[in-house]
Amino acid sequence: MPEEKASSEIVHSRQALAAQVSSVALASIDSQTQERLLRMFADPYLLEKEDRAALVEQLREYVAQFPEVSELRVLLGMALCVNFEVQPAIQELKESVRLAPGSFVAQLKLGELWMRLRVCDQAEEHTRVASHLAQNLAQIELARKQAAAIRTMKRQGIERGGYKLPFSSLSISLRSLWNRWSSNAVETEN
């Protein structure tokens, strides 16, 4: 019993420390970066190319300064998406989920990115986790709408079905044709 209580207290104190570090990291964002973030949230199309690049660079500096803060990585991943840098955005959002698997925003945003890339199975999974992590009606509604959009995409056949080589279906068809042709050739020789 005393060991369980001690480990519970350690976990609680780690969570409290993580929340303090997160608050310090988010509070350290300068006003210019905050303004760019607000414009990005209001309408991503308002940011000029130079502003998007500057925002990404500034957020990278904050992530380098506070590498364990999941929320900063979510912001960086979102800025990378707005700047059309998909692979780095995937990496940042995955790292954010790894750092804080219980983060509603991290799970929801990674699910949204997978949805936009039409990788519906992964999008559905992260959105489902986010919906279980929702703590208020607004979060529940966001997760519900995203899940509904994913279901619609799957129903309409828009999903990509994961990563595949571009000509994999063609190579399978050619291979089966080749196998039929070679088996017919062997039969004719006999």
Write up what this structure looks like.
This protein is mostly helical and 190 residues long. It has one domain (2-189): Tetratricopeptide repeat domain (Serine Threonine Protein Phosphatase 5, Tetratricopeptide repeat). Helix content is 79%, strand content 0%. The chain has 9 helices and no strands. The protein has helices spanning 2-27, 31-42, 49-65, 70-82, 86-99, 104-116, 120-133, 137-155, 168-189. Helix 4 runs parallel beside helix 6 (104-116). It is elongated. It starts with a helix and ends with a helix. 25% of the residues are buried. Mean pLDDT is 82; it is low at 10-21.
Question: What is the topology?
Answer:
Blueprint: H1 2-27, H2 31-42, H3 49-65, H4 70-82, H5 86-99, H6 104-116, H7 120-133, H8 137-155, H9 168-189
Helix pairs in contact: 3-4, 4-5, 4-6, 5-6, 6-7, 6-8, 7-8
Key descriptive features of the protein:
single chain, 79% helix, mainly alpha, Serine Threonine Protein Phosphatase 5, Tetratricopeptide repeat, 190 residues
Tell me the β content: under 5%
Cα separation of the termini: 79 Å
What percent of residues adopt helix (DSSP H or I)? Answer: over 70%
Do you know the CATH topology? Serine Threonine Protein Phosphatase 5, Tetratricopeptide repeat
Give a quick rundown of the structure:
The protein contains nine helices and no strands. The chain is an all-alpha fold and 190 residues long. The protein has a single domain, classed as Tetratricopeptide repeat domain (Serine Threonine Protein Phosphatase 5, Tetratricopeptide repeat, Alpha Horseshoe), CATH 1.25.40.
